[in-house]
Design goal:
Strand order of the largest sheet of chain A: 1-2
Number of domains of chain B: 2
Largest sheet of chain B: none
Distance between the termini of chain B: 41 Å
Largest interface: A-B, 60 and 49 residues
Number of strands of chain A: 3
Number of strands of chain B: 1
Distance between the termini of chain A: 95 Å
Oligomer: heterodimer
Number of helices of chain A: 20
Shape of chain A: elongated
Structural class of chain A: mainly alpha
Structural class of chain B: mainly alpha
Radius of gyration of chain A: 32 Å
Radius of gyration of chain B: 21 Å
Order of helices and strands of chain A: HHEEHHHHHHHHHHHHHHHHEHH
Number of domains of chain A: 3
Helix content of chain B: 40-55%
Number of helices of chain B: 2
Chain lengths: 560, 82
């Protein structure tokens, strides 16, 4: 049990509870030290099951490590560190502890060797993340409740699936599953809800952009990537995931193109990026799984960087709509530069982190001769540059002069952005370190002349399309309806109609009923009332008379 | 307020020329790198260039069409939620 103290996730969760009691410098120190310790511990954790526990009739593997779990634990801890640094000046006392709890729970899932432990940390993650949304205040309250409901639904599906799995196979070990039983479908559904997969993908762009300027940075990292992790472990090579992933990719692009709120653009782009990873899981070769895992790693960094850049703009201007922004590069050059580095990384520009990870997924499609998957991924790569790579920096930092001249954000936020920018470029220039961490041996060279030229053509001509068709992309004060419309408008409307119909029925009943009820009451009263035949007090005389009659009858019968 | 050099029309025009030159360079680069055609379409000259452009144009038009059906004012949900 002693090695439970070396569990990076539990370190973060302990740090979260400590943070609640601390103020000032001590709070900042713990907020940075806990994730730092988690990074070091995750980096050095030996493979194998370190902590087991007995629960009911099961052996829980609370702390089980292999290369895949270590990769995700390292990036989650690193993300917690960068996020905490960025959020040090966040005024909400709740957000940072909630974020560390959330990150710790995500690491807990990464080290869970059995399904029960997965479930416990899974739910803890839902609580932590909902608290992060909630801490943004009144405006986020409704969104946080919707977020909570979807994740509780996901948790219920997962629990039902795990229970079914245990009943069927008698084992709680978290191993590769196939879609051969209803319980595995339920587990997959639970996983996919957290991945932002259809049909319930709208929770993500609904809730994440409502969090505070720093909260969204944390939210972008853990829930969806934990889902990618459990899919990698539980459902590699499940063909259905190829189609789910491709849908997510194009859904994310199209909705992000229509969006006006800068952080909602980036939220849709999370679904898009997770789509690449889910597709990789579905392809299921070692190259594809490595690619999906590597892409989760690099994505966490550049998406956090993009949202830090957007968060800085939000904090310094108080505005989040593209129609209100523009021209900010003049007074926020560093924020703009970091945002552009994040945008180039998400677009997989050569020499950035996205290039060395995403190209492995395409390569896996080539290796299996999956032409339609490959050609869809190529279109999607161009589309990523379109909806996130150019659109975000262009509308926020260039476009038109909005007249806003906000200063750069505080020092800790600038340092966090520079740190993640350096990681984006570093991983892109020298991918060897990342490749070392991947679950399978890497036999892939990202930087060949053909790869680089093909990617540059794809991206730059995508950029040409953006500027040529800029008129079609002009931002308007609109949102685009998504499936959340079903439970925010249609559901309540149906309930309203049903409630009104029921109310009318009840009113009709209530107006017809008194007459009928009075009939019944008066009939009852006639027979049982104070004057009724059956309810009168019987005089002693009549009692004696009846007894005498009975005796006489008895006598008579006796003589017969 | 002094105008930033990047926002002047002359600069915008120069940036366009630089951009077009880079585009041409990436296509011309095909002559100098060893070509890797895994699928037959890739062997077509400048495949990634025209495919990237067409794919993006199609995505923009599709988004535009979807927007016609599903766009609402951004105050749409504010009346009852919250």
């Amino acid at each position: 049990m002693a090695s439970l103290l070396a569990h990076p996730g539990l370190i973060l969760i302990a740090g979260a509870f400590l943070l609640v009691w601390l103020r000032g410098g001590a709070r900042s120190a713990v907020a940075l030290a806990a994730p730092m310790a988690a990074v070091v511990l995750a980096w050095n954790v030996p493979e194998g099951v370190a902590v087991q526990a007995h629960f009911l009739d099961f052996e829980l593997a609370l702390f089980a490590t292999d290369k895949l779990s270590r990769l995700f634990a390292i990036i989650f801890a690193l993300m917690a560190f960068g996020g905490a640094l960025f959020a040090l000046n966040q005024k909400s006392p709740l957000e940072l502890p909630a974020a560390l709890l959330y990150a710790g729970a995500a690491i807990g899932v990464a080290f869970a060797g059995d399904l029960v432990t997965v479930f416990v940390f899974w739910e803890l993650m839902a609580i932590g993340s909902a608290l992060v949304v909630w801490s943004a205040g009144r405006t986020a309250y409704a969104a946080s409740l919707r977020y909570m409901m979807i994740h509780l639904l996901g948790g219920v599906l997962l629990m039902a699936g795990i229970a079914g799995h245990v009943a069927e196979f008698g084992s709680i070990a978290f191993e590769r599953m196939t879609l051969d039983s209803p319980s595995h479908w339920l587990i997959l559904a639970g996983f996919l809800i957290n991945a932002g997969a259809p049909p319930l993908s709208a929770w993500l762009p609904d809730a994440y952009p409502e969090a505070s300027w720093s909260g969204t940075v944390f939210l972008s990292a853990f829930t969806t990537k934990t889902a990618v992790y459990v899919l990698l472990r539980g459902f590699p090579g499940t063909e259905l995931l190829v189609y789910v992933g491709l849908f997510m990719i194009f859904y994310g692009i199209v909705y992000a193109l229509l969006e006006n709120d800068m952080r909602r653009i980036l939220a849709y782009s999370i679904v898009n990026q997770v789509g690449f990873m889910v597709t990789g899981v579905g392809i299921g070769t070692e190259m594809a799984l490595n690619g999906a895992a590597a892409h989760a790693f690099t994505h966490i960094i550049y998406k956090a960087l993009l949202l830090m850049s957007a968060g800085s703009v939000l904090l310094m201007t108080g505005r989040r709509k593209c129609t209100d922004l523009g021209g900010l590069f003049q007074s926020m050059p560093l924020t703009a530069a970091c945002g552009i580095i994040g945008a180039l990384s998400i677009s997989s520009f050569p020499l950035t982190s996205g290039f060395v990870s995403k190209s492995m997924i395409s390569q896996a499609a080539v290796d299996l001769n999956l032409f339609y998957v490959w050609i869809a991924l190529a279109a999607a790569s161009a589309g990523v540059f379109l909806h996130a790579g150019i659109k975000f920096p262009w509308f926020v930092f260039f476009q038109k002069d909005s007249g806003l001249r906000p200063p750069e954000p505080p020092l800790n936020m600038r340092v966090a952005m520079i740190f993640f920018s350096v990681l984006c470029i570093g991983l892109g220039v020298a991918p060897g370190a990342l490749y070392e961490l991947l679950p399978y041996a890497v036999d892939y060279v990202p930087y060949t002349g053909a790869h680089v030229v093909a990617q540059l053509q794809l991206l730059l001509f995508s950029g040409l399309a953006f500027f040529v068709m800029l008129d079609y992309l002009r931002r308007t004060l609109t949102i685009t309806l998504d499936v959340d419309w079903l439970y925010r408008r249609l559901g309540p409307a149906v309930c309203g109609v049903a409630a009104r119909a029921l109310a009318r029925m009840f009113a009709a009943l209530a107006s017809a009923a008194p007459a009928r009820i009075m009939d019944i009451v008066s009939a009852l009263r006639r027979h049982h009332g104070p004057e009724g035949v059956l309810a009168r007090t019987w005089p002693t005389g009549s009692m004696a008379l009846w007894v005498m009659v009975l005796l006489l009858v008895y006598l008579l019968l006796y003589y017969l | 307020m002094q105008q930033h050099w990047l926002t002047r029309p002359a600069a915008t025009q120069r940036l366009w020329w630089i951009f077009i030159a880079i585009l041409a360079a990436t296509v011309a680069a095909e002559f100098f790198v060893e070509h890797e055609a895994n699928f037959s379409v890739e062997a077509i000259f400048g495949f990634n260039a025209w495919y990237g452009f067409i794919a993006c144009a199609a995505l923009i038009l599709f988004a535009k069409a979807l927007g016609l059906m599903l766009k609402k004012p951004d105050t749409y949900y504010e009346k009852r939620d919250g």
